[in-house]
Design brief:
binds magnesium ion; five-stranded mixed sheet; alpha+beta; binds adenosine-5'-triphosphate; Nucleotidyltransferase, domain 5
């Protein structure tokens, strides 16, 4: 019996969904290898545990950025690892459906297919990430009804209008989770003359970050390093100043949505006005983002139930659907 896997190789995390078992893997998209021999030392969780603690001779890499391969060898290793970890026997026939951005080029598509084949997959199909997200969060994409999905990942936000099993309009912007982390790093630098790490910034974003006004007044104690004295320092950041630092990029996501709406045929636009916009991806959990989009567009906004998992899930569920729709070739 072949096993069908849905794989979402994200900038930050790689997720694998198997139809019978659900999400079977969720690990950082990270590979550590020796600079000298190129030999892989650790992948996924193990690699992330070693992050920042590796000796000079080792290199930590994220082989995929915004859905596009930046290291072919690293991607093959990562995919090999996830297939091996989720498929019990090497004799099992593995079919994979991999999420890719709508904006991917033909060369990049071929590279992804080749990497998955090299990693051991017998059959490889690609699916646009927002389409997978739509399937994963239960939208019936086969209907002649327009749905808007906004996938806010780590490096990229993709806005797509889907109808009749395909993406009708897509718009992407390189503003997503990591952009907001960087806004907080810049805030620390400019306002407090303090340097903080990316993971500290991400923590602050998840704890007190917001892109829309809300009542709770919180603060977060942040550990960093004074840029003048190079000594450790603790500073207290308020929600208001963090919100101000992230404001511009929240609006950039709104602008991408507005642009997609402008390019949407009127019949589909009226479907969206009625049924709303669905937010997916880890960035969908950023506080206030749904509210900001709702206020700026006057369209109802919903956050997918498992925003970080719905793309891998949708990819895993899509194979039957693709075969049913007899449109397999479109994804090859
Ligand atoms: N509670 C939260 N609040 C705000 N942001 C969050 C929260 N939880 C996760 N994130 C952010 O979600 C992002 C990761 O989302 P996701 O796993 O969808 O990205 P990815 O698929 O790896 O990236 P991409 O799709 O851009 O390649 C990170 O930037 C992370 O900081
Ligand atoms: Mg993603």
């Amino acid at each position: 019996m072949p096993i069908d896997l849905g794989i979402d190789p994200g900038t930050a995390n790689t997720l694998v969904y198997e139809k019978k078992r659900g999400i079977v893997l969720n690990e950082p998209s990270m590979v550590i290898r020796s600079r000298k021999t190129g030999q892989v030392q650790a992948i996924g969780n193990d690699a992330s545990d070693m992050m920042g603690k590796t000796p000079d001779g080792m290199q930590a890499l994220r082989p995929i950025r915004n859905g596009v391969i930046t290291s072919f060898g690293g991607t093959v290793e990562l995919l090999k690892y996830v297939i091996k970890k989720t498929v019990p026997s090497s004799f099992t026939r593995v079919r994979v459906v991999i999420c890719v951005p709508c904006s991917i080029t033909e060369v990049e598509r071929r590279a992804m297919i080749e990497a998955a084949q090299t990693a051991g997959a017998r059959e490889v199909y690609l699916i646009e990430e927002p389409l997978a997200a739509a399937i994963g969060c239960g939208i019936d994409i086969s209907q002649p009804h327009g749905s808007m999905i906004v996938n806010v990942g780590a490096g990229l936000t993709e806005v797509a209008v889907v109808s009749l099993g395909g993406v009708v309009v897509s718009q992407s912007v390189r503003v997503a989770g990591e952009t907001f982390d960087n806004d907080i790093v810049q805030l620390a630098k400019k306002k407090y003359n303090m340097s903080i790490g990316d993971s500290t910034a991400e923590q602050v974003k998840c704890d007190i970050g917001s892109v829309y006004m809300h009542r709770a007044r919180e603060t977060a104690e942040i550990n960093g390093r004074d840029m003048a004295t190079a000594l450790p320092r603790v500073e207290s950041f308020s929600t208001a100043e963090v919100r101000e630092a992230m404001r511009e990029h929240g609006e950039a996501i709104v602008d991408a949505i507005k642009m997609a709406l402008e390019n949407t045929p009127p019949e589909l636009a009226s479907d969206i006005m009625e049924s709303g916009i669905v937010l997916a991806g880890g960035g969908a959990m950023l506080r206030g983002l749904g509210r900001l989009i709702n206020v700026r567009t006057e369209i109802p906004v919903y956050i997918a139930e498992e925003p970080m998992e719905c793309t891998a899930k949708g990819a895993g569920m899509s194979l039957d659907f693709l075969l049913e729709m007899n449109r397999k070739s479109r994804f090859l």
